[in-house]
Automatic annotation (TrEMBL):
One of its GO terms (cellular component) is cytoplasm. The keyword Hydrolase does not apply. It is an enzyme of class 2 (transferase). Keywords: Catecholamine metabolism, Cytoplasm, Transferase. SUPFAM superfamilies: P-loop containing nucleoside triphosphate hydrolases. GO terms for biological process: catecholamine metabolic process; xenobiotic metabolic process. This is Sulfotransferase. Residues 48-298 form the Sulfotransferase domain. Its EC number is 2.8.2.-. It holds the Pfam family Sulfotransfer_1. It is found in: Cytoplasm. GO terms for molecular function: sulfotransferase activity. Belongs to the sulfotransferase 1 family. The lineage of its organism: Eukaryota, Metazoa, Chordata, Craniata, Vertebrata.
Length: 306
């Protein structure tokens, strides 16, 4: 039987892919193929050496994946070109029609220690990660920028529900009706458990403001020790411009039937504060009132600007 590369399998299946509806899994809306395969995802048992990178969608996931891979390879840029980021660091819960391999398919072909990506809220992360005390890196991005980035992503990503108009999308975000559910519950869930479990909780805004400091924090969390020069090189290799120009990380390896970069590039701006270009004064007031209500009683130090 012919062994297809990841990219070739996607090209062959791309014509038949569609915008999948969302289905509830334990109260969380997930794309239908994920919901249909939920039991196999939930039963995944990682090795204690595996590392999980978790984020709400569009909160710096790919950025963090590339930083981690470079740290694990001592800053060797060529080693990180061995495959696209989607193959190097599989997406745990993603399920696509054959012949596209699922995240579980890719993981089952890899030997530990593996680096694994997820967008699952903490209560849906398979229990094996906690039982085996796996390290988890969580990245949170301020709600306004996260909302804007997710909106543009859903416009260009033809496997998730059509986002509809911007004004309506804001309401979907506030109500937790987007894929992977409520941003509010997501960021709070990991925050509340960060000291009870092996979680390094990072902020997108800190990574933008002082990338070297955050790369060093990740390095220490992984029990690594790299030279100052290597750390400096990793910071350069994971700058927004470098990653946007890198075919291993910019998702141009997916055909336009799946990710239509003519609508919006996967790596669009990568800025803090771009939300100010999208909200009307009425939308901003509505959003901020709702934000205050949903985040009441939490002490997560989000910054909307830097």
């Amino acid at each position: 039987m012919e062994e297809l590369t990841y990219e070739e399998s996607i090209r062959r299946a791309s014509k038949t892919l569609c915008r999948f509806p969302l289905r509830s899994v334990r109260g969380i809306p997930l794309m239908e193929p994920i919901a249909q395969s939920w039991e196999s995802i939930w039963s995944f048992c990682p090795d204690p050496s595996d590392l999980l990178i978790s984020t709400y969608p569009k909160a710096g996931t790919t950025w963090t994946q590339e930083i981690v891979d470079l740290l694990l390879h001592n800053g060797d840029a060529e080693a990180c070109k061995r495959a696209t980021v989607a193959v190097r660091i599989p997406f745990l819960e993603i399920i696509s029609p054959p012949p596209i391999p699922s995240g579980l398919d890719l993981l089952n072909k890899m030997n530990p220690p593996r680096v694994i990506k997820t967008h699952l809220p903490i209560q849906l992360v398979p229990e094996g990660f906690w039982k085996n005390k796996c390290k988890v890196i969580y990245v949170a991005r301020n709600a306004k920028d996260n909302l804007v980035s997710y909106y543009h992503f859903d416009r260009m990503n033809h496997t998730q529900p059509d986002p509809g108009p911007w004004d309506g999308y804001i309401h979907k975000f506030m109500k937790g009706e987007l894929a992977w559910g409520s941003w509010y519950d997501h960021v709070k869930g990991y925050w509340e458990e960060r000291e009870n479990r092996n979680i390094l909780y990072l902020f997108y805004e800190d990574m933008k403001e002082n990338p070297r400091h955050e790369v060093e924090r990740i390095m220490k969390f992984l029990d690594l020790s790299l030279s100052d020069d290597v750390i400096g090189s990793i910071v350069e290799l994971t700058s927004f411009k470098a990653m946007k120009d890198n075919p291993m990380t910019n998702y141009t390896f997916l055909p336009e039937e799946i990710f239509d970069h003519s609508v919006s590039p996967f790596m669009r701006k990568g800025e803090v504060g771009d939300w100010a270009n999208h909200f009307s004064s009425e939308q901003l007031q509505l959003f901020e009132e709702d934000y205050e209500r949903q985040m009441k009683g939490t002490n997560i130090p989000f910054r909307m600007n830097i």
